[in-house]
Amino acid sequence: MKRDKPQVPQLPVLSQAVLEQERKMLLDLGNDITRVRDKNDLLFLFSRRLKRYFYFTHTIITLIDEKAGTYTPFLLDNESSPIRKHPMYPELIQAHFRLNEPFIQAVLQAEGPVSFLLEDIMDQPGSPVFLKVNYEKGVREILMTKIMMEDKPMGFIHMYTDKPGSFTHEFKSVINGIVPQLSGAVSNIIKNEEIHKTEREKSFLLDFSNEIALVRSQTDLQAAIFKVLDKTMGTKLAMIRLIDDDNIHLSTFMCDPTLFGGTKATFDQMSNRKITIEEPYTSKVLASREGLIFNVAEEISSGNDYAKLWATTGLKNMYSFPLRVGDRNIGTIWLLANKLSKLLLKGICAQISIAIANIQANEKLLAYKKQLEDENDYLKEQIRTFYNFSEIVGNGAAMQEVYRLVSLVATSGTTVLVLGETGTGKELIARAIHNASTRRDKLMVKVNCAALPANLIESELFGHERGAFTGATDRHIGKFELANHSTLFLDEIGELPLEAQAKLLRVIQERELERIGGKQTIKVDVRLIAATNRHLEEAVRKGQFREDLYYRLNVFPVTLPPLRDRPEDIAPLANFFVQKYARNAGRKISQIAPGAIQQLNSYSWPGNVRELEHLIERSVLLSPDGILKDIDIPRKSMAVQQNPAYPTNRSLEEMERSYIIEVLKRCGGKISGGGGAAEVLQVPGNTLHSKIKKLGITKADYFARN
Fold first, then answer.
1. C-alpha distances out from residue 347 to 71, 207, 209, 212, 219, Å
2. Closest CA to 600 of 625, 577, 626
3. Fewer beta carbons within 10 angstroms: which end of the chain, N or C?
4. Strand order of the sheet with strand 556-559?
5. In 518-660, which ranges are E strands?
6. Which H or E element spans position 22?
7. What is the β-pairing status of strands 591-592 and 627-628?
8. What is the pLDDT of residues 420-473, one digit of tens each?
9. DSSP-based three-state secondary structure for 38
10. CA distance readout (Å), 86 to 92, 119, 120, 134, 136
11. DSSP β-bridge partners for residue 62
């Protein structure tokens, strides 16, 4: 027989014996409940004690979530429940049942325990599915009653039986009497669980903090984050975006590329999209204090394109928190999950924020360190290439220009043509260019084109195979091959025969060669530096040098000034050579006498630096003490011969006047005595004084003005 209404208790007047028995049951149940330390023990003790007096199959306790308007399983009867093997059981114990359906509303409105026959209510609209599941496993009747906390319902006791009529008035009276104690026990369990949960979260955050403290790179941080989120109820990192240095745009810092599976292309497109802090979702998150929760289903309904991507994971909510260091926003973090502890996530995000800030600070320090190292290397390179090219001495204006040109071309692979008179140091400049280049780890290869017989130049440059010509008994590797990935210095390039010039041009153009007698084409990567004391343009006009080769070589010309055009460098060069050869000869010579310096300055140096070096070497060997007092300078001046600038359309008197002024300049204005102009011109001092007066030469003519 079906009943339309729930069986609301109408407790009769009980006999003294029954009341005594009920009192004993309540006392025993109360004693059992006070011994409960674990929530899993509560139902076990409750059911075992109660089953001594009444019949029922199993019981559970559910808790109310007022905010969500649902109630969910809290304590389960894992021994007696007949529905544990039902296919829907795993889903039921995780389900959220609505409070607004008629069945549970009847329980909430009842003053005490209320029972229902399942066949009466399980098919009614809105009835929870667990009623039908129990019916399918033989359960026929359910007893429900509220458990209270601070005069508000906090959950329900569900009791089931497979024998209708088991829930007698006496049964309901006992349940009604035990509810206050049971409510207290459940309340204590909930509070203890909250305490334990908070302690676990604090411990977890402490462990995470210790782990994050070891992080030094983005890779380490990602590993730590993925590890910690895996422990937080299936949380998945969707994205971390950081605010750029412009404080407007945000860039992707970290994401889980495996999270969105088949929609990776869409995810990559969205994650690479540059957004600003004004983007609607980002601005909301950055403005929030505690972060925001976006329900995936609701966001899809509102037309959120991102939510369609979120939905592919099957997770219900997107949690987003601002990443902050102090009061400064540094970015946002987006996490997908069904449910998360806000306290835990807040703590994790705080730790992540600090770790990211530390990584950014560390990266900036490394960048500054690298910048300083680069600047230091650059300054060292400048010193090495601009001021101190090995044995190159001279800081006058003419040489400073040479240093500037060398520093500009050194690090490139450009072909350089070094021009200058004999003895100006063309090879030193070539070595300086090589030593300052990216090829400095390999030796520079040198070929003196003027020192090779014409019939051997081609073999020397390009090599030959065995038997290529008479006397070629072995394979010979040419200088171009030896200089592969290095620098080849072709000294005295103006002396190269025309036939060899043509083959050299081909190698320069094609960057490949064939050995004499060989058939294999050999690729070469050679940086070319050529040098000559000849006027190549004049040689081209005379047909002695190929015009096309000249243009190939004259890409970056560097002209070395003759020593007569850099008088300010004579004394430093002389002192350098004195120290060098005094050391080699075992002599203790510490300085050059002023008179000797005057002698050096008065000479025109047709042989340039090489002549000065050899002259100092000889003078060191002839010096008897620690001061170099006298230098054996050739008496015949070659100033006029070495200076082609004298025009032939001037009068003899004009040429004589110009020549005397030039000599006076070189002698520092000294007219008579050692190193004076009279000595250089090989005339008596009085005669020179008369000439100076006659020609109208004044000190202003030969003393340089600043």
1. 29, 12, 9, 12, 21
2. 577
3. C
4. 445-448, 487-491, 527-532, 416-419, 556-559
5. 522-523, 527-532, 556-559, 591-592, 627-628
6. helix 16-34
7. parallel
8. 988 888 988 999 999 889 888 888 888 888 887 777 888 888 888 877 777 777
9. coil
10. 10, 19, 22, 9, 9
11. 73, 156
Strands (E) in 487-583, as ranges, are: 487-491, 512-513, 522-523, 527-532, 556-559
User: CB under 8 Å to 104, separation ≥6 — which residues?
Assistant: 71, 97, 98, 128, 144, 156
Q: Which of 447, 468, 463 lies closest to 513 in space, CA to CA?
A: 463
Q: Which amino acid is at 610?
A: R
- Give, in order, the Cα–Cα distances in Å from 96 to each of 63, 91, 137, 148: 10, 10, 21, 20
pLDDT at 199: 79
| 302 vs 33 pLDDT, higher one | 302
Copy the structure tokens of residue 460.
Answer: 């020397």
Q: What type of residue sits at position 84?
A: R
Rg (CA), the chain: 51
Tell me the pTM: 0.41
Residue 386 is classified by DSSP as I
Please tell me the distance from the alpha carbon of residue 561 to that of residue 641, in angstroms, as a whole number.
16
Element holding 418 (H helix, E strand): strand 416-419
Cβ atoms of residues 357 and 330 within 8 Å: yes
